[in-house]
Amino acid sequence: MSHDHAIDLSVTWLGQTMPGCLYNASGVWCREEDELEVLLASDAAAVISKSATLAPRDGNPEPRYCRTAMGSINSMGLPNRGFDYYLDYARRYRYGSGKPLFLSLSGLSLDDNCAMLRRLAEEGLPAVPEINLSCPNVPGKPQLGYDFAATAEALGAFDAAYSGLYGVKLPPYFDPAHFAAMAEILNRHPRLAFVTCINSIGNGLVVDIDSEAVVIKPKDGLGGLGGDYVLPTALANVREFYRLLPGKDVVGCGGVKSGREAFMHILAGARAVQVGTCLYHEGPGAFARIAGELAALMRVKGYRRLDDFRGRLRTL
Ligand code: SIN
């Protein structure tokens, strides 16, 4: 994928090799089939669909996304076409492109998540589920990943419902005790092949001085933060789970807007890197630009492959 031919950005994981290391964060550019197709035709190395619920949802009232000087705040509320729509797309997806398809699942209950996983298993498709344990934006539905007992129960149920490899999208954690407690739970599940770190930092509040008001309507202005705000938190989560989950992969997500942040995520241990806020603002051309910048940075540093520096973050 790189325009720098001596540099290899390919990634081998989940039993396949994908042509680069960058793809979209679920939620961005992936609700409609035509958006997914544009991603597939871009320099994204994989495609992930919008978090699906069993039934279609309109999501929260608008305005529900706001660009800010440091990134974004959103409270979308899981607007999506419903699981059947994404399953149908998965049936027709061009797996021969070499770009994996991930299906993000965000059932409103454990039963809903298991029902979607069972349907996916019945179809025997190569699409890989990324189960979202971390949506902060559905009023009355706390982020599952902050409830360790409920997460442990859910993972047991996922194992029973689905016989293939799967991943989970985690919320950010902020304390070493929580990294350790969550890792202990995740390590009980060999087919949990990857964790994606991080979802937005939930329930931030952006204030506009001129209007003396919040900037999004749902939840009186509370929403998930993305972009520059979240980079150090994302890196901490990638690095800690990289160290605590041997044999599993960590997908980095948070604050990637150039080759520099992608490099940081991989140095912290990320196998692959998702792009959210930057993709929202720039469009799918971001993938070629960021890949080119990453390749140029690797060339300057004398690295040819991502394995040359993945996880090799130095401490002082
Ligand atoms: C949303 O649709 O509210 C965003 C989903 C998420 O952050 O998990």
Automatic annotation (TrEMBL):
Residue span(s) of domain Dihydroorotate dehydrogenase catalytic: 9-298
GO CC annotations, alphabetized: cytoplasm
Gene3D superfamilies per UniProt: Aldolase class I (3.20.20.70), Dihydroorotate Dehydrogenase A, chain A, domain 2 (2.30.26.10)
One MF annotation (Gene Ontology) recorded for this entry: dihydroorotate dehydrogenase (fumarate) activity
Compartments, record wording: Cytoplasm
Names of required cofactors: FMN
Complex formation: Homodimer.
Protein name from the UniProt record: dihydroorotate oxidase (fumarate)
Lineage per the UniProt record: Bacteria, Pseudomonadati, Pseudomonadota, Betaproteobacteria, Neisseriales
